[in-house]
Design a protein that fits this description.
The chain has about 150 residues and is of the alpha+beta class. It has helices at about 15-35, 40-45, 60-70, and strands at about 45-55, 60, 80-90, 95-105, 110-125, 130-140. The radius of gyration is 16 Å and the shape is globular. It has a 6-stranded mixed sheet, covered by helices on one side. It has 3 helices and 6 strands. The mean pLDDT is about 90. The protein has one domain: Nuclear Transport Factor 2, Chain: A, CATH 3.10.450.50. The N and C termini lie far apart (about 40 Å). About 20% of the residues are buried.
C-alpha cells in the first residue's frame, strides 16, 4: 500500500457504528461519483496526495492525476457496486478496509451483465475530520464457470 499521509489525524478512534456507517458512505459515494463521470466528486473522495491503482492503468497519485484519468476515461453505462465491507481497524493513522466489487455494464437493450468483479484494499485517513481514501487498490478476480 501507499504509506501514511502527512498530517493525518491520529488513528486511535474506536470502531463505532458511526465510523462503520461513515466507511460505507465513502465507499458508496465512490461508486456513485464514478458512475456519474463526476470527476470533481470522485477526486474529492481522496486525500490530496491519495493513490488509486488497478489493472490496465498506471498508478494515479494526487488529485490532478486522478482528475485527468477520469476526464479521459468516461464510464457511461456502468454501475459499480461494493459489498462485503470488512473494516479491519486502524494501523497508525490509516484505517484498513477490504471489500468486494461488481461492475455491471448496461447494454443498449437495458440488460445488465457483469463486466468485472474483484476486491478493493483501501487505506482511509481523516482530512479535516472527514474520511478520505489515502490508497485504493482494485484487484479483479477471474471468472469461474460453475455447473449446477
Amino acid at each position: 500500500m501507499a504509506g501514511g499521509p502527512p498530517g493525518a489525524a491520529p488513528g486511535d478512534e474506536p470502531l463505532t457504528a458511526g465510523l462503520l456507517a461513515e466507511v460505507h458512505q465513502l465507499l458508496a459515494a465512490y461508486g456513485h461519483a464514478i458512475d456519474a463521470c463526476d470527476a470533481e466528486a470522485w477526486v474529492g473522495l481522496f486525500h490530496h496526495d491519495g493513490v488509486s491503482s488497478g489493472p490496465g492503468r498506471p498508478k494515479l497519485r494526487g488529485r490532478d492525476e486522478l482528475r485527468a484519468w477520469v476526464e479521459d476515461h468516461p464510464r457511461a453505462d456502468l454501475l459499480h457496486t461494493c459489498t462485503n465491507v470488512h473494516v479491519l481497524g486502524w494501523r497508525g493513522d490509516l484505517l484498513d478496509v477490504r471489500s468486494h466489487f461488481v461492475i455491471y455494464a448496461i447494454d443498449t437493450d437495458g440488460t445488465y451483465r457483469v463486466s468485472v468483479a474483484g476486491s478493493y484494499a483501501d487505506e482511509l485517513c481523516r482530512v479535516d475530520g472527514v474520511l478520505r481514501f489515502w490508497c485504493r487498490e482494485a484487484t479483479p478476480r477471474r471468472a469461474v464457470q460453475t455447473r449446477h
